[in-house]
Design brief:
single chain; alpha/beta; TIM Barrel; Arc Repressor Mutant, subunit A; 9-stranded mixed beta sheet; 15 helices; globular
């Protein structure tokens, strides 16, 4: 199977924390859409005929697109690539872009999963984060999406915001779970260079949340989600049974994917490609029949290390059988030997032929993963 990611880089304004490529000049939307469809055609052989199981519209702000345009993109993709009979097609939505009937239009276009960028239910925190919606708009958006019969709905929440307490996080989670959402992505705020928060930190105007508070928030997050029947299947992701994100899971399991649009990444197990982060350069190149991207060839150890990094973030962990079959016995034995001490310390457990982090191990996952990376 394979996945397709489509990057829609347009935003009405920039959030204080976001370092994804985006622009506020929306005048090139139509040209960008045509270029995305053209790029898909130019790269029709990239997935080697693999069946497309998932499509993800991310950004930027995909909800700035008209649903009819979304339908055109999906129809074009289905004409170019072989699709499964029941693909998961996710569409990111900003709460303030929602209007009566929009989810029905998106459903008709082929969208069957919505990811809503709530981020917080506190208006003051939303303002601090630079979000352009308020809590009332998030509530209305959720009411509308469920009224249209779309059941596969994910909500994004950000925690670890300066000044935020565990009580604030619990309030955000309980408000989220007061709606029949089926998936939650909860991300700890990271301060990236080039963002407003990054500049504030450099100027001494922002102090990051202390590690002890962050750890308490992470523990609370898992506890509350379990109480509401959510499976903690990846460090930042939780879902009800049957609603684990198929698209995100494919990244962690090294399923090939094609990225379309400026700054989008692609992976085919042998190499990684990333498109130029410039809308105008992207449109011009694609119109000339060129793919404006850089490419990195991946050796065996690099691909193995990426597998270790991603798989240990999930509830499935490292599949030792897969490692031996796809890589070799040397790397299989390397992991078995090195994981021994973490198993003894209660930070990792071996279940049949998989290595999985315990809850305690997840708290220091970065340290453990770093030690397991190979340099053979």
């Amino acid at each position: 199977m394979a996945g397709i990611y489509i990057h829609i880089p347009f935003c009405k304004s920039f959030c204080s924390y976001c370092d994804f490529y985006s622009i506020t000049d929306n005048s090139l939307k139509d040209a960008l859409v045509q270029s995305v469809i053209r790029e898909a055609s130019l790269r029709s052989s990239y997935l080697d005929g693999e069946t497309v199981e998932t499509v993800y519209f991310g950004g930027g702000t995909p909800s700035l697109l008209d649903p009819a345009t979304v339908a055109d993109i999906i129809a074009a993709l289905k004409n170019i690539f072989p699709f499964s009979g029941d693909p998961e097609i996710t569409f990111e939505v900003n709460p303030d872009d929602v209007y009566e009937g929009v989810f029905n239009e998106l459903k008709k276009a082929g969208i069957n999963r919505i990811s809503l960028g709530v981020q917080s239910w506190d208006d003051r925190r939303l303002h601090y984060l630079g979000r352009r919606h308020d809590a009332a708009q998030s509530a209305r958006a959720l009411e509308l999406v469920f009224s249209e019969g779309i059941k596969n709905v994910s909500v994004d929440i950000i925690y670890g915001v300066p000044g935020m307490t565990t009580a604030d996080l619990k309030a955000d989670l309980e408000k989220t779970f007061s709606f029949p959402v089926t998936h939650l992505s909860a991300y700890h705020l990271t301060i990236e260079e080039g963002t407003r928060f990054g500049r504030m930190k450099k100027e001494g105007k922002l102090k990051e949340t202390e590690e002890e508070i962050s750890s308490s928030m992470f523990s609370l997050l898992g506890k509350v989600c379990r109480e509401h029947g959510f499976i903690h299947y990846e460090i930042s992701n939780f879902a009800r049974e049957g609603y684990i994100s198929r698209h995100n899971s494919s990244y962690w399991k090294q399923v090939p994917y094609l990225g379309l649009g400026p700054s989008a990444h692609s992976f085919d197990r042998r190499s990684r490609q990333w498109n130029v982060s410039d809308v105008r350069k992207y449109i011009k190149a694609v119109s000339n029949g060129e793919i404006p991207c850089e490419r990195e060839e991946l050796d065996r150890i690099t691909v193995f290390n990426e597998y270790v990094m991603t798989s240990l973030r999930t509830m499935w962990g490292i599949d030792l059988t897969y490692v031996e079959e796809f890589y070799d016995k040397e790397l299989h034995d390397y992991l078995v030997n090195l994981s021994g001490k973490y198993i003894r310390y209660g930070l990792m457990k071996r279940e049949k032929n998989t290595l999985v982090l315990t809850d305690q191990g997840s708290m220091i996952s970065d340290n453990i993963i770093t030690e397991l990376l190979a340099d053979l």
